[in-house]
Amino acid sequence: MSRNNLLIQVHDLCDGRGSGRRDDGGGGGGGGGGSGGDRAETTANRREGEGGGSRCSALALVVHRAQSPGLPAPGRYTPGRATDDDDDDDDDAAEGAVYLHRTPVFIEMANFKEWSSILMIYLFAHVAQYCCTNIANNECAYSSKNGKHNSRCQPKVNYRHKEKEVLDQILGPGSYDARIRPSGVNGTDGPTIVHINLFVRSIMTISDNKMEYSVQLTFREQWMDERLKFNDYNGKMKYLTLTEANRVWMPDLFFSNEKEGHFHNIIMPNVYIRIFPNGLVLYSIRISLTLSCPMNLKLYPLDRQTCSLRMVSYGWTTDDLVFLWKEGDPVQVVKNLHLPRFTLEKFLTDYCNSKTNTGEYSCLKVDLLFKREFSYYLIQIYIPCCMLVIVSWVSFWLDQSAVPARVSLGVTTLLTMATQTSGINASLPPVSYTKAIDVWTGVCLTFVFGALLEFALVNYAARSDSHRDEMSKKCDLERTVSLDVGDYEDNPNNTFNMKPLMRPELMMSRDKMSQIIHQTPPMEKTSCWKSWMSKFPSRSKRIDVISRILFPMVFAMFNMSYWSTYLFREGEDEDK
C-alpha cells in the first residue's frame, strides 16, 4: 500500500471519528477568525475545535514518519498557542498530513484504543503488500521452471533496438560474406536452390513491326541462407527487412530476351529483402522490361502469338545454382488486364536449361499466349476492302458511252485499294512468306483491277461493233440487186438477161443443196440464257451483263474458301 493511499484512509477514519467535535469547534474557530474579535475568545474556540482534530493530525504524522524516517523528530505541540504560522498549520492539519518543520510538536495519545486500531491497519497493509510480492515472485519462478511464458514476469523489451542488434550480429563484417553463395539443402555442398515467382502488373504494348512487347512485373526470389538465422524472441520478430540488396548474397539472374529495362525509384526504390528467423531470404523488386517476341504472321490477323520471358543464370552453373518455379501459382496476372489489340488467353511455365561450352546453366521461362482481336481488323481492313470492290462494280451498270465516269471510278477505286494495301504493309515487318491479309488485299486489288479491265474490253467491243455495223451497211449496199446495164446482150426475144450476183463457180447445185438441207437436224428450242442474251444484240452490252453476274459470284466463292481455310487453320493453332 502506498503512502498516499494510507494517508487518505487515515484521514477518512479521523473524519468519521471526530466529525462531531470538529464541526462544533471548527465553527466557533472559523467564526472567531472571520470577525477579528477578542484574542482570548478566538484561542478558546480554537482549543475547543481542535480537540478532535489534534488526534488526526498526530496520527497522520505517525503514518508519515513510518513511511519517511528521514523527517526530523517531533517536538512538543501546545494547542491554542498562536504563532505567525497558525493559519498554515491549521490548513495542514485539515489535509491529514502535518509537516512541523518550524515548531516542534509532541504527540499526546488521548485514546490508546484508537491509536492501536490505526497501527493495526498500518501493519496489515505492510503484510498484504509483502504477501503479494512473494506470490508474484513465486509465480514467475514457477513459469520459468516449467518453460511457460508469462508476460507479467518479463521486462519490457525495445524490439526495434533488438532488430538493430540482430542485423549487426548476422551481417557484421566478421560473421557474413556476401561474396560466398549459401550452402545447398540441409547444409550440404549441393547447389543453392532459388525459387522464383512473378506477378504481372501490366502489359503495355505488343509491337508487330518490331516484334517486341513491354511488361511491368514484380519479380521475387527465395532461397535459404543458413548464415542468416537469428533469434525471433518468441515470435516477436517475424522477419527483418533490408533495402540494400548488396548486403547479402544475390543470385546472378538475367533476362535473356531482354531488349531494355529499368527499375522503379519513385518515391523510394521499389525493392526489399526480408530475412526470416530460419534463414529464408525473400527478394522482391518491381521492374519494367521490353522483351523480344519472334512472331509467325502467316495467319495475320487471325493469328495467335506466343511471347516468352526467359530467366537464366549468368555465371553460376547448375552445379552451384538451380532455379525452380515456386510451388503453387508461380505466375500471377493482375485482374482485368486489358490490351488494345490482344487478349491474354493463358500462360505456361517451363524449364529451359541452356548448354554452352562453359557449362550448363539453369533457365526458367514463362510463355504468354496472346490472341489477336479480330474485330479491329474486320472494321479497319476487311469491310473497307469489300466496299471498294463493290463500288468498282458500279461501272458495269453505267452506259458504255460514259467513258469519263467509268474510267474515273475504276482508277479511283484502284488507287484507294493500293493505298489501303500499302498502309497495312507499313505496320508489319517485311517477311518472306505470304500472310492471310496479303491474300485478302491481293484478291480485292485484283477484282478492282479486273473491273477496270472490263471497261477496256467493253470499250473495245463497242468500237468493234460500231465498225462491224458500218461494214455491214456497206455490204448490204453492195449486195443490193442492181441491173448491169453495160453487160446486157441482145437476144432474139429483145429481153434483158439478169446476171447472178455470185460467181458461177461459187454457186451450189440444186441436188447438193437439197442433200445438205436433208442432213441438217431440226432446230432445237432456244434456251432461257440465249433468249435472255438475245435481248442485248451488241457484244459490249453482253459483256457488261455477264460481268454483273460473274464478278459477285466469283468474289462470293473466294470469300467462302478464304474464311473456311484460315478459320480452320486458326482452330488448329488453338488446339496446339
TrEMBL record:
It is a multi-pass membrane protein. Residues 15-25, 38-50 have a biased composition (Basic and acidic residues). Residues 84-93 have a biased composition (Acidic residues). Residues 164-372 form the Neurotransmitter-gated ion-channel ligand-binding domain. Its main location: membrane. CDD domains: LGIC_ECD_GluCl, LGIC_TM_GluCl. GO terms for cellular component: chloride channel complex; postsynaptic membrane. Keywords: Cell membrane, Chloride, Chloride channel, Disulfide bond, Ion channel, Ion transport, Ligand-gated ion channel, Membrane, Postsynaptic cell membrane, Receptor, Signal, Synapse, Transmembrane, Transmembrane helix, Transport. Residues 15-53, 68-93 are annotated as: Disordered. Residues 381-473 form the Neurotransmitter-gated ion-channel transmembrane domain. It is found in: Postsynaptic cell membrane. The chain crosses the membrane at residues 374-398, 439-462, 545-563. Residues 26-37 have a biased composition (Gly residues). The keyword Membrane applies. SUPFAM superfamilies: Neurotransmitter-gated ion-channel transmembrane pore (SSF90112), Nicotinic receptor ligand binding domain-like (SSF63712). GO terms for molecular function: extracellularly glutamate-gated chloride channel activity; transmembrane signaling receptor activity. Belongs to the ligand-gated ion channel (TC 1.A.9) family. Glutamate-gated chloride channel (TC 1.A.9.4) subfamily. This is Gamma-aminobutyric acid A receptor/Glycine receptor alpha,Neurotransmitter-gated ion. It comes from Cinara cedri.
